[in-house]
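Supplementary notes for students who missed Thursday's class. We covered one full example, reproduced here. Read the sequence, then the structure, then the short commentary at the end.
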Amino acid sequence: MARGGSPRSTPVGAARGREGRRAVRVRVVRLPGAGDLPLPFYASAGAAGADLAAAVDGELVIEPGARALVPTGLAIELPPGYEAQVRPRSGLALRYGVLLPNAPGTIDADYRGELSVILLNAGKEPFTVKRGDRIAQLVVAPATRVHWEAADRLGETPRGAGGFGHSGHGAPREEDPA
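Structure (token representation):
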């Protein structure tokens, strides 16, 4: 839904987005006191993440090295089989050193509480969050359920058990797979 859309909820299911792509409908409720804030919105036609706005009263100052739980004033109802991922905004990280320490944060389809964002100020100056500031992005994606199967051994691969840094550095050699 576009920035500043209707405060009413929309039904769960599939629809067509503006670009003609299949869109997933997610019901959104603005919690009391958040009627002036936008629903999550895409800042550009090709954006994968919808921006989330801060529902703070006035201003919230996050000191260097400190964390804060920032409310959005929104609760969502994801369709079964989907998750939402809360991701950082790259501009906040680059300009101010403001990060999401648990990125991506996962919102399960059965969660119905307020969406909140953990912000960490890794910068050298206090960072001020104002009401309505874009603080994070929300990406909705299919969530695969796995049937875990115990086994005595695993199939062989050229990599095998090679762990961190196993693939090396620099340009690939001709015999290396792409």
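Commentary. The mean pLDDT is 88. The chain has one helix and twelve strands. If anything here is unclear, bring it to office hours.
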